[in-house]
Write a structure and sequence with these properties.
Order of helices and strands: HHEEEHHHHHEEHEE
Number of strands: 7
Bound molecules: zinc ion
Helix content: 40-55%
Mean pLDDT: 94
Structural class: alpha+beta
Oligomer: single chain
CATH class of the largest domain: Mainly Alpha
């Protein structure tokens, strides 16, 4: 698992650097993933499709041209994330990625595109450590921003959602059973861990090293 984690971290950071370079956009001054996707894939790379015909977005090919389908009615935050995710998928296809968890990796690239590390450090210096303020500044969810904190700063972090747990940052002896996770949450404050319920999505908790 740790090997996958390190490999994914490297691939995502490099993919973001490559894509910003290809787009000729400075990662210190990001303009959002839709601008990035248009600069890389072409101005007409987006197609709005009826709601519920695809999950939220999809990468398809039309006469060998990559097209990002987006469901009608997405919020600007969802648009940003979907454009970044599909651009991540396009990058992985272009590099013939056949490793584990391609969907997770595309989302990880998306996080690095939405919040490039240089822009993260500059924003943190200007705005402070507040998760909500920073997530709004970058037009991303608090979940994504919490993971970027860990990826950029290296603090051991777990994002617990109703369907899965994602861990980032320094190696940590994370639990392997639901009972052990509940126990960790109970003991976290005494063990020097910080527990935070996210406000912009239901049932999401972040635990991190203080
Ligand atoms: Zn996908």
């Amino acid at each position: 698992m740790r090997n996958d984690e390190r490999t994914h971290a490297l691939i995502a950071e490099r993919a973001a650097e490559d894509l910003y370079r290809a787009a000729r956009i400075c990662p210190e001054n990001p303009r959002g993933a839709t601008a990035l996707a248009k600069a890389v894939l072409g101005k007409r790379c987006f197609r709005i499709v009826p709601r519920a015909s695809i999950p939220r977005s999809a990468l398809v090919w039309d006469n060998r041209q990559p097209v990002i389908q987006l469901c009608a009615g997405l919020s600007s935050r969802e648009l940003n994330h979907c454009a970044a995710h599909e651009l991540g998928e396009w990058h992985l296809r272009m590099h013939n990625y056949h490793g584990p968890e391609p969907e997770e990796l595309a989302s990880r690239i998306a996080a690095s595109l939405c919040v490039p590390s240089k822009a993260f450090f500059a924003a943190r210096a200007a705005l402070g450590d507040n998760l909500r303020v920073l997530s709004q500044a970058f037009g991303v969810s608090e979940s994504l921003m919490a993971l970027r904190f860990a990826e950029c700063l290296g603090s051991a972090t777990a994002l617990i959602t109703p369907t899965r747990v994602r861990t980032r940052g320094a190696p940590w002896a994370w639990p392997s059973s639901p009972e052990a996770w509940r126990e960790l949450m109970r003991r976290a404050p005494n063990d020097g861990m910080h527990v935070r319920r996210l406000r912009d999505a239901r049932g999401r908790v972040v635990i991190c090293q203080r």
